[in-house]
Design brief:
Layout lengths: L6 H9 L10 H5 L8 E5 L5 H8 L3 E6 L2 H13 L5 E4 L14 E7 L5 H7 L3 E12 L27 E10 L4 E9 L3
Parallel strand pairs: 1-2, 1-4, 2-3, 4-5
Antiparallel strand pairs: 5-7, 6-7
Length: 190
Amino acid sequence: MEYIGNEKYWDDKFSSRVDNLLSPEKSIVENLEYLKRGSVLDMACGDGRNSLYLLENGFKVTGVDFSNKALERLESFANRNNYFVNTKQIDLNEPNALKNIGMFDNIIINHYRLNKKQFLDIENQITDGGILFVCGFGHKHQVDSKIRKQDLIQQDDFEYIYKSFELLRYVENQDDIGFFVTYIFRKIKS
C-alpha cells in the first residue's frame, strides 16, 4: 500500500521544507501519560516532529521511514539538540519490514495506515505491557486528492490484535483539517 505518496513524493516534500520542525502531533502530547517509560519505535516518523518530542521527554527513540531525506532532517534536528536518535530507512510496504527491528516498550504510528497483517506482526516488536499508539486520519475523514479512502484508519484494522492487546482509549476529533482518530492499546502480558 502506498500511503498518500511514494518515496520520491516524500523525499521532495522533505527536501523543500524550511529548516524548522512542525509541532508534535496533538494527540501524542495530550496522551503522553499512557506511554510506558523506555523505548519507542516511531513508525513512518517523517522528519521527526514526534521523535524529538519523545526524546525531550526522556524516551529512547528509533525512527523508521522510507524517505532518506526525512531521516536526514530528523538526525540533523536531533544533533542540534544533543539527542541521539536511531534511524532506519525501511519501506513499511515490504513484507516482514520490521522482522529484525527489535523490541520496544512503545510503538507509535502517526498518519500511516498499516494493513492487518502488519498489525499482527507488531505483537513481535512490543514488550509485554507495552503501548501501541495509532493516530491519524480516520474513517469519517472526507477523501480528497491527497488523502484517499485507503489511507484512512478504519475501525476493523485492529480486529486481529484484540487477542494480544487491550484497548485503553479511543478518541475521535474533528477540526478544520479533518476527522482524526486515536487508538491506544496495551499489550497483554503473556
